[in-house]
Amino acid sequence: MRIIRDYQYTTSKDRGASVAIGNFDGVHVGHQAVIELARQADPDAPLGVLTFEPHPREYFAPDAPPFRLMSAEARASRLDKLGVKHLYQLNFNTALASLTPREFAQNVICDGLGLKHIVVGADFCFGKGRKGTVEDLKAFGQELGFGVTIAELLETGGVQVSSTAIRNALSEGRPRDAALQLGHWHRIEGEVIGGEQRGRELGYPTANMSIDGLHPPKFGVYAVLVDVMDGPHQGSYRGAASVGVRPMFDGQHPNIETFLFDFTGDLYGATLSVALVDYLRPELKFDGLDALITQMDADCAQARDILAAL
Q: Which residues form the Riboflavin kinase domain (predicted)?
């Protein structure tokens, strides 16, 4: 998959794609449907996705609480798996935010990227002040020579599929409900970083990862599936993970600590993808280390049973 970050610097190979446009945070089943429509709109054209980095919401409200379901790298990885050939991950800056709807259609879609067909959701807005509507987009397409398809919004179980609904499910400790809307397990991806090695001292060595910039799921312990993406231990594992601030040790900064079952080795510097399967319990502060270890034994036994049933 080729990633293009500036619509003003493209080559002939970057043009002529059939593209789905949106933020695609989580790449949920609604997003996947939009991408599939782009694939079907012109099967002979390269399949593309047009999105923005940073997320416009981060640009306009940089001090707002973290809300993203996945990092840009995790999103690109998921889109690659869906067969996307061109990822137009445009730098969202003052110049791009200032384009009127007509300027966006002319300068970005037509002149800059030379898109052949575009697909957007029914609630899509674009241009300065989000003043451009899907009806405007269809009119620009007829004028400028690109096709436009409007995708209807999806529902699952009577609930509209959306990144907001997924965030709510994760905040309430319902990762399986989130997975129904995502079409895949919700995953936290990142590099394993150094920790305080307390887990190793307790007989439960963990791989520690930051969750900075991501929407935090409900703090507590989860049954998880783990993919080690690179390095000598690359492969798939099962485990248990704790998300939160470690109240037993007066922690302050949230992270995720994952214990891989039946694993021996050093994962520092490796990239992990940790899928949240089931919420087991909230974070707790125990009377002592023995009580903590007893609970960790029970957590891992429960997680093994849950994962064995998948």
A: 181-308
Give the model confidence (pLDDT) of 264-282 as tens digits.
999 999 999 999 999 999 9
Strands 18-21 and 117-121: parallel
Residue intervals in the chain for CATH 3.40.50.620: 2-153
Look up residue 132 and give its two tokens: 């451009």
Hey, is 250 helix, strand or coil? coil
For residue 214, give the nearest of 188, 193, 241, 184 by alpha carbon. 188
C-alpha pair distances (Å), 117 with each of 58, 211, 215 = 28, 36, 32
Does pLDDT of 98 surpass 70? yes
Angle between helices 163-171 and 175-182 (to 10 degrees): 160
CATH architecture of 2-153: 3-Layer(aba) Sandwich (3.40)
190 - beta bridge partners? 272
Helix 175-182 × helix 29-41 angle, to 10°? 10
pLDDT higher than 60, residue 248: no
Residues 87 and 95 sit within 8 Å (Cβ to Cβ): no
SS3 content of the chain, % helix, strand, coil (to 5): 35, 25, 40
**In which residue ranges of the chain is CATH 2.40.30.30 found?**
186-308
Query: Residue 119: enclosing H or E segment and its boundaries?
Result: strand 117-121
* Alpha-carbon distance values, 62 to 57, 58, 213, 264, 295 (Å): 8, 5, 11, 40, 39
Q: What are the CA-CA distances from residue 173 to residues 41, 61, 122, 280 (Å)?
A: 38, 26, 30, 9
> Could you say which of 53, 58, 257, 283 is catalytic?
257
Q: Is 257 a catalytic residue?
A: yes
- Cβ–Cβ contacts within 10 Å for residue 191, how many? 16
Query: Which residue, 276, 275, 299, is CA-closest to 286?
Result: 299
3-state secondary structure of 274: strand
CATH 2.40.30.30 holds for 186-308: yes
